[in-house]
Design a protein that fits this description.
single chain, 222 residues, alpha/beta, Nucleotidyltransferase, domain 5, 6-stranded mixed β-sheet, 8 helices, 6 strands
Length: 222
């Protein structure tokens, strides 16, 4: 209910709940109790989200797009030194905007319709290929139950060993050719898909409220 009603602040959400929803519940906790319950229910919430996702037509899409996008956590040296994210956030480079940033990186696997299939939040320098394999390893059924998926990514998803791992799982990788490589299959798809992928990333970052933390640890482990 908190997410659907657009409350990104736990404090504001609980004030709303105590004012308007008390008649629906025998007991409503205060913020510390709510936060503990929310963390304890993390796996249950993930399971419910997955059940709802698999009940959509988008889940059956046999094409997934994979990409990562910066989550900037601060720009000044003072923020970097004082932030609760220091030691986890780090400096990285965003090629699409040709700039360095301090923060994290959101890695996303989604359908072409924008339905998130898997995601991870890492340091800014994390290897995109290893992170993608990590997403699949953390949820083996995601790949095992969906052989024959086509994955579309950018030039950073390269490497013979990496592609061999995907191929062994029954997945085909389409990506633009790197320098000194011959043109690869699916090249005509990449330019029109770029805008779609960027739109999905920005929408997902907004839904998770990732860039409104002020350099602090996200409340409630979100």
């Amino acid at each position: 209910m908190q997410v659907l009603l657009g409350y990104t602040s736990e404090a504001r959400w609980l004030r709303h709940a105590h004012e308007h929803l008390c008649h629906l519940f025998r007991y409503l906790p205060q913020q510390s109790g709510y936060n503990k319950r929310l963390r304890a229910a993390a796996e249950l919430i993930k399971m419910v989200i997955r059940v709802l996702a698999t009940d959509t037509t988008l889940w059956a899409d046999d094409v997934w797009v994979v990409d990562s996008t910066p989550v900037e956590c601060g720009r000044s040296k003072q923020t970097v030194r004082r932030s609760d994210l220091a030691g986890w956030a780090e400096y990285g480079y965003c090629a699409s905007h040709s700039r360095y940033f301090w923060g994290l990186r959101l890695h996303l696997v989604s359908t072409l319709g924008g339905l998130p299939v898997g995601f991870a939040l890492t340091g800014a320098k994390a290897d995109e290929r290893q992170t993608l394999l990590g997403i699949f390893t953390a949820d083996p059924a995601l790949v095992a139950d969906r052989p024959g998926q086509t994955l579309i990514g950018d030039r950073n998803y390269y490497g013979k060993d990496f592609e061999q791992v995907l191929d062994m799982a029954g997945n085909e990788l389409l990506r633009p050719a790197r320098k000194n490589e011959d043109e690869r299959p699916g090249a005509r798809l990449f330019t029109p898909l770029r805008q779609t992928i960027e739109s999905i990333n920005q929408t997902f970052k907004g839904q998770l409220d990732l860039e409104r933390h002020g350099g602090r640890t996200p409340a409630g482990g979100r």
